[in-house]
Amino acid sequence: PGEKQLHELYPLGTEQSDLRLLRSEKFWTWRNFFLRVDDVFKFLRPLRIQPLRRRALEAAERWMLERVGEGSDGLAAVFPAMLNSLIALRALGYSKKNPVYAKAEKDFTGLFVDDPEDFRIQPCLSPIWDTAINVIALAESGVSPDHPALQKATDWLVNKEVRIRGDWAVNNPHPQASGWAFEYNNIYYPDTDDTAMVLMALRTVRPKDPQTLDAIFRRALDWQLSFQCDDGGWGAFDRNVTTEWLEDMPFADHNAILDPTCSDLTARTLELFGYIGFDPNHPAVKRALEYLIRTQEDDGSWYGRWGVNYIYGTWQVLRGLRAIGQDMTQDWILRGRDWLESCQNNDGGWGETCATYDNPGAKGIGESTASQTAWAVMGICACGELDRPSIQRGLRFLLSSQKPDGSWDEQQITGTGFPRTFYLKYDFYRQNFPLLALATYVNRRSGLGHRPGFYRCDYVGRVTPCAPDRFWNEKIKPAAMRNSI
What we know:
The protein is mainly α and 485 residues long. The protein is built from 17 helices and 6 strands.
């Protein structure tokens, strides 16, 4: 009925509109194939000719029930899947009083925020991601590795390691489970991005139990390595899920069902490897470097899959390349730096909008934000020459826009969930990344580079503790510190 329709979603109205999915102009395409098969199924449904339908529904139900149960804060712990699971459970006959439905509904309403400003629904929660970045920013800015807050945070992160083989095991035969997810509880979907960030956080804090943390590093590094895809890059949740024709299905979720490799995740993995002393000549590193060379844009930038957008991707690649020991004066690397400098705003900051995913021609254009300015400053710092005007102007922007309480304001969205579909506003980004950028500059200026870590990897699958006490208890010459991780 008309009163139940969401007319505001259809500016031209719904009554006379043809809302069917459009076919491709060419006769033979995967899209047209799937749409015609869908038409066949719709034709057969009234005739009750539905081979395998019951078995398919039962299999789908079993799969869903496992993933809305204990260990997960809802299906995939993300809004679209959680909402669809509620609809599916009701369609399958589950009452609202059923314990399964009740848990799924409770998890879903846990995303609601009802405060004096407004009512809104969060797309997901990001405690593991936020905690890891905050630990890194605090440690790099000089907070002691023995500080109780950092100890408590890393203890919490250690306890969040995923120890079951989730859906990733379908494409990845790696026998031992590890990794970290994005949310509080999402045991079926750990990801390589959170895992790399968590490991970079853990290395900065003095462990209470070095042997336990050694085992975690060995296990997690092997797990992370196992996700390198055939093209040399890393995706987030899976391995080699890049079959493009799958996105031509009518239910392809806004063409966001794949998990393609991306430059930002690949570079973050290299950043982790560099900090723990991973062999830069290892085949996995060489393949990753070749991938980054291939994926560089003509103007020198890199696409940002999980942050907005080319500023994010370019910063992370430059930071990863420096960490793994690349010569940062190579022409292809300096082209990335030069691109960042080319889009600096007159106020000294950087900004870019989500619209760049629809229109790459708008890359690097936008009102200056604290987080994106921090990324750009760190990217340029990675190439050296700390006295470059772009760095100094960027730092002045951050310092001049800082509030008296030490925080920054930022209304813009700078996080990416699914390009062109689903974006994320991380409230911590406007705090932790500016702090990390300032710390990065100060540490580089002093010759420190990065705060020393508590773990070194002497070869694949083996992590050994280093002795960072000397870094904190002795005065080390800058040249020596520059080569220390």
